[in-house]
Amino acid sequence: MASNLIIEVMIKSHPAFGLAAPIATSLIGGGPATIIWGWVLISITTQPLALSLAEICSKYPTSAGAYYWCFRLTTPKRRVLTSWINGWLTMVGVWTISLSVTFGTAQILVAGIGIFHPDWIPAPWQTYMVFLGITVVSTLVGVLFNSFLPTIDIICACWTALGVMVMLVCISAKAASGRHSAAFALGHFDPSFSGWTPGWSFFIGLLPVLDHRTAYTYAAIGMVASMAEEVHNPVVQLPLALSWSIPISFVIGLLFLLPILFTLPDIPTLLAVPGGQPIGLLFELIMGSKGGGFGMWLIVFGIGVFCALSICCAASRATWSFARDKAIPLHSVWSQVNHNLGDVPLNAYLLSLVVQLLLGLIFLGSTAAFNAFVGVAVICLGASYAMPIAISVANGRKDMKDAPFSLGRWGYGLNVFAVMWMAFEIVLFSMPAVIPVTQVSMNYASVVFVGFAFISAMWYLINGREMYKGPPTPEETIEAEN
């Protein structure tokens, strides 16, 4: 069963999609060296977070996740407010990571169309309509075919494994655009496209690997915790799934990246592609034909579709859970379950859909909208998972002394590193990818984050402090179900 949990994490945080969708930002931020060594760096720096959460999860294995952990670790005087803040961070983070997946899939679809219509320059509203279609379809599949979602996850895992191997063989064998030396594939660094200084340009170029390794992994960590009541012996299985998911995803990411970097076409040509998404042209040039490029593109697009189905479902469950705890305006509406559709939280699905479509309108005014969407997700999800770790450290880690999955003497150092690295990422994801900054290239992540923070604070003052009592304990949840 632990292996099934690891597969679940890999589905939610898949390297191929997470690295392909925003690859233009890494090309702007430095190119091959940024991509490959950024992948190594972020995989290493994210592992302490996963280990720290695995330790907490082994002590409190509950589907409520981070905001329950904050509730248990904080003093009684402040635990309700702390869990409220964490719950809102988690919910907004899941909404925006779902948005980044559906929007990224839409951009990949537009890039696929560009393979056969290279002169087509999509208007922002056209890209938005594609995004709308993918988001609506992903929601409808989750609502109407809820019972088939576990089977879809299995198909996704098979598609992913076979797809990455097919791409590894085909790209390595064809290399129509030429082959590069190891010095280029592993060491070429050109920060001139970003306008930033070389050092900061490298970190800006990390956004795609951070997109995957932080935003998508954070979402996946949440999904692992949500399965606590569904697995046998969660005290053992959940920490194993958390701690091994990153190394496994790291290896898959290398298998995806290395053949591309050794056969990478001309970078200025890729960055000049209409619409700003070069993945379709990249595969076409590497494979030497539109048909070959389309075949490689189809693998990545299929992964994106599977991810969109899975993450939209996760967003609806997170919305329903927080509404059940009376922490959202009109909570009685969003916490309803439609029994005719197989106990699907239909209203929560629809709320998540509407939030994504409204936030997607940012793209009509800013082509850097994708970075903003993922930026909000990293800020919210990263902060939500750093909070219980920081609280544990502030308490002297006394709550973790009897944790079944103990980090021992390494615990304090790993905890502090995880929190500090997350603080750095919050700053990084608030920065624009290029300078000088214009209205179009502005990163609106901080604006969206502050907007949701204001809504959360106002609702707490109006209603939350009276209605919200904190997340239910596992015993209360079981009692309510019986």
UniProtKB/TrEMBL annotation:
* Coiled coil ranges: none
Keywords attached to this entry: Membrane, Transmembrane, Transmembrane helix, Transport
Query: Might you report a single GO cellular component term?
Result: membrane
GO molecular function, a single term: transmembrane transporter activity
Where found?
Membrane
Report membrane topology: Multi-pass membrane protein
What InterPro entries does the record tag this protein with? AA/rel_permease1
Q: Where exactly are the transmembrane stretches of this chain? A: 20-42, 87-116, 128-149, 156-176, 241-262, 294-316, 346-364, 370-391, 412-435, 441-462
Output the Pfam families linked to this UniProt entry.
AA_permease_2 (PF13520)
Q: Which domain of life is it from?
A: Eukaryota
Q: Which PANTHER family match?
A: AMINO-ACID PERMEASE BAT1, TRANSPORTER, PUTATIVE (EUROFUNG)-RELATED
The protein's name in its UniProt record: Amino acid permease/ SLC12A domain-containing protein
**Record organism:** Hebeloma cylindrosporum
